[in-house]
Write a structure and sequence with these properties.
With 252 residues, this protein is an alpha+beta fold. The protein is built from eight helices and seven strands. Helix 2 packs antiparallel against helix 3, helix 3 packs antiparallel against helix 4 and helix 4 packs antiparallel against helix 5.
Length: 252
């Protein structure tokens, strides 16, 4: 009996802690909203960052943090959190609008090599979807294909319609699986980052004694290729490469 009582007490304590955590999260969110609406952006940011530091993550939270940073004039961190929000909810129109608006204030615009048109086209297709949603779509097509094949075998139905449906589902499965793999490779395997400093020197090598290739401004995004000590070797959207100090950037 004592053993059962202790288990029930532990479960009750866990429930209380979860409830308290949820109430604290809601309280910080409400506090942040009120402070933001009152134009107290620094205090609102502190409330939202406290949530993030506590392990809470959501598109709404990152979006709000981005808004606070933008109001504070910190374009680099604003872009960082808008991009983090978009990664969690790529179909949200508000996130997309604020991200595009913030880009208008970027001091540096990368020009040069154009993005691969094929990659650009695939990016356009996959942009509204999260990795999980693409994986679910692929799974759905797989289940439907297996059901169709099972019905075909069970009823020994080799008609034209059955074959057309099977081939169509197979094509859709291959396409959706390919898009899922592409999304995973581009958005999750590749380490993407943002310049958060007002400006950052992009060097020819990992050290201050190397030549300056160019100076990048806040908000510029890149993909990390390798890292060495306090530096990342990065490649920007226009395919320009260089080394940049870790302290001046943040990973999305």
């Amino acid at each position: 009996m004592a053993h059962k009582t202790s288990i029930l007490a532990l479960l009750w304590l866990m429930l209380l802690l979860q409830t308290a955590s949820a109430l604290n999260t809601d309280s910080l969110f409400v506090s942040g909203h009120h402070l933001y609406d009152s134009a107290q952006y620094r205090q609102a940011l502190d409330s939202y960052l406290e949530l993030e530091n506590g392990g809470y993550q959501s598109a709404a939270l990152f979006f709000n943090i981005g808004n606070c940073y933008f109001k504070e004039g910190d374009l680099g961190h604003a872009m960082l959190y808008y991009l983090r929000a978009q990664r969690l909810d790529p179909g949200d129109d508000e996130i997309k609008t604020n991200l595009e608006f913030a880009r208008q204030f970027m001091p540096t615009i990368m020009e040069g090599v154009k993005i691969n048109p094929v990659s650009g086209f695939i990016d356009t297709i996959t942009a509204p979807f999260t990795l999980n949603s693409l994986a679910w779509i692929s799974s759905l097509f797989f289940v439907l294909l297996m059901l169709t094949i099972g019905i075909h075998i069970y009823f020994q139905n080799s008609g034209l319609l059955s074959k057309v449906v099977s081939y169509l589902l197979l094509i859709l499965l291959l396409v959706s699986s390919g898009l899922t793999t592409y999304k995973y490779r581009v958005d999750y395997l590749a380490r993407k980052g943002v310049i958060v400093a007002s400006e950052a020197r992009v060097l020819s090598g990992p050290g201050e004694d190397n030549d300056i290739e160019f100076t990048g401004g806040a908000g510029l995004t890149f993909v990390v290729q390798k890292e060495l000590n306090d530096y990342y070797q990065v490649i920007f959207e226009n395919k320009r490469k260089g080394w940049i100090r870790k302290a001046e950037v943040a990973i999305i």
